[in-house]
Amino acid sequence: DITLWGLEIGLLTMRKGETSKFIFKPSYAYGQQGCPPVIPPNATVLFEVELLNFIDSAEADAFFELTPEQQDTFPLEKVLKVAEAERQLGNFLYRKRNFECARDRYKKVLSILGRSSCSEAEQCQINTSKLLVLLNLSLTYLKLECPARALAYGEAALEIDQRNAKALFRCGQACLYMTQYEKARDFLLRAQHIEPFNHEINGELKKLASRYQAYMEEKREMCCRMFASLRSSD
């Protein structure tokens, strides 16, 4: 989303980790209008830019210009490269807390990886890429406060790798969100068995214990009030 023509041109000349200074005439910067009150009209501006990282989307752009039939015949190596570029864009949007757009990117990646493979080795490669996206979707739906969807994608990840601690953790989080305490405990204990020193998993188990205790106390109080009401009516 670069808005200045000069920056768009300048960035294309840079390498990762490079720092550059650019002087832009008004036609390459803010033009006749400027950007009040900071940039006056017809201003020549100086930008100092450090290129920390970038995502090469050229392969992805070329892929999405193809017809569905052509996409099906696209070499798997290039499909996986396109999928990873799109997933990285989703990660960028997630870090910006734009969870809806991140979700849409991740779903787009799943559609890319939905092709039928020709061999077991190819399916293994596809599943490796798909697993990362399913985990991303599970986490994103937790952020969107849609725990049922988060659980569904977490369980889909477990179909690929049933011992994936992160998938088990996401499923446990989703169940805890939905107050399904027994299921949450099962998922989290399985995750802890695989990664016993994982602070996130152990922290979630403590949260589960605290909430379950509060839930049981509330339930006991409710029962006591109900029986007290019955005795008084007698």
TrEMBL record:
State the UniProt keywords alphabetically: Isomerase, Repeat, Rotamase, TPR repeat
Gene Ontology MF term list: Hsp90 protein binding; peptidyl-prolyl cis-trans isomerase activity
The regions listed as transmembrane in this protein's record are: none
Q: Which GO terms describe its biological process?
A: piRNA processing; spermatogenesis
Q: Which InterPro entries match?
A: FKBP6/shu, PPIase_dom_sf, PPIase_FKBP_dom, TPR-like_helical_dom_sf, TPR_rpt
Q: PROSITE patterns recorded for this chain?
A: FKBP_PPIASE
Write down the superkingdom of origin. Eukaryota
- One GO CC term, this protein: cytoplasm
Start and end residues of each PPIase FKBP-type domain:
1-55
Tell me which EC number(s) this protein carries.
5.2.1.8
Give me the reactions it catalyses: [protein]-peptidylproline (omega=180) = [protein]-peptidylproline (omega=0)
Q: Which Pfam families match?
A: FKBP_C (PF00254)
Family the UniProt entry places it in: Belongs to the FKBP6 family.
Task: Report the protein name in the record.
Answer: peptidylprolyl isomerase
Per the record, the gene is Fkbp6
